């Protein structure tokens, strides 16, 4: 005389599918109930962004003035190209 009602045999695939549905439902309910905080830009952050942009522009202009524009060196300035005999493609 069993005290519990008989539990029918359920295939493993069905149990996995039920567990996946329950997990997705719990995940969806948890994500939906979360609180979201919207952060807006303040006047101080706008001013800081503007000043940093000006500093970056000035540094780029200084770097462009400090390095001369490189031109293609002439043929006699180029070192002779050495061929690598061990390379498969001889590069």
Protein architecture, described:
- The protein is mainly alpha-helical and 91 residues long.
- The chain has a domain of 26 residues.
- Helix content is 49%, strand content 0%.
- It contains 2 helices and no strands.
- It is flat, with a radius of gyration of 35 Å.
- The termini are far apart.
- The mean pLDDT is 77.
**DSSP E strands, number:** 0
- Quick one: overall form? flat
Determine the N-to-C terminus distance.
86 Å
Structural class: mainly alpha
Name the beta content range. Answer: under 5%
Radius of gyration: 35 Å
Q: Biggest sheet: strands, sense, closure?
A: none
Question: How many helix segments?
Answer: 2
Q: Whole-number average pLDDT?
A: 77
pLDDT < 50 runs, ≥5 residues: none
Run of helices and strands: HH
Helix percentage range: 40-55%
């Amino acid at each position: 005389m069993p005290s519990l009602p008989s539990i029918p045999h359920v295939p493993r695939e069905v149990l996995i599918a039920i567990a996946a549905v329950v997990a997705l439902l719990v995940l969806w309910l948890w994500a939906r109930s979360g609180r979201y905080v919207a952060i807006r830009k303040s006047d101080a952050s706008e001013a800081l962004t503007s000043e940093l942009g000006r500093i970056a522009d000035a540094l780029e202009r200084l770097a462009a003035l400090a390095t001369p524009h490189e031109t293609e060196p002439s043929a006699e300035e180029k070192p002779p190209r050495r061929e690598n005999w061990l390379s498969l493609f001889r590069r």
